[in-house]
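Hi V.,

You were right to ask for the full record rather than a summary. Here it is.
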Amino acid sequence: MNFTRAGGILLHPTSLPGPYGVGDLGQSARNFINFLDAVKLRLWQVLPVNPTGYGNSPYQTLSAFAGNPLLISLDELVADQLLQPQDLQYESEFSQRRIKFQDVIPFHSEKLKLAYKNFVNGQAAFLNPAFDLFCHENTFWLEDYALFIALKEENELQLWTYWPPEIVRRDAQALQEARVRLFQK
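Predicted structure:
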């Protein structure tokens, strides 16, 4: 076998600089790729990009299929008109040296919920076909994961083993009632 030597770097996208306390897969990632190209590094190895659980470790994820919502570029949501520039105002500055997840996660979650609300209300309708296709192609995990996350939030982020027993046992009626209740939120 003939192998070509190549150099690279291991870096999780959240470690990239970003205006909202964490790097994402938007402009900061494109800038990093351009940097790698300029210095002739050909490989970028990333840690898992799934939603993190306890301790925000990329190795302790909540799903094998879902992506980490922190990696969604808020600036790209502005470009798609799901958010307005003023929606991204923050009372204080995010740290440029360290990710403070206790600040970053609530900020991003609030902005993603607003973008979703705007999407459901008809903004950025050009995204509907891609959204529908994504949902169709991922039905094997998406609905269960959405229910799991909604239940986790309803139960104040506790481990699922501390949730109501009928939910833990996956009682069909209790799960259906939870779907209806949580869909309305």
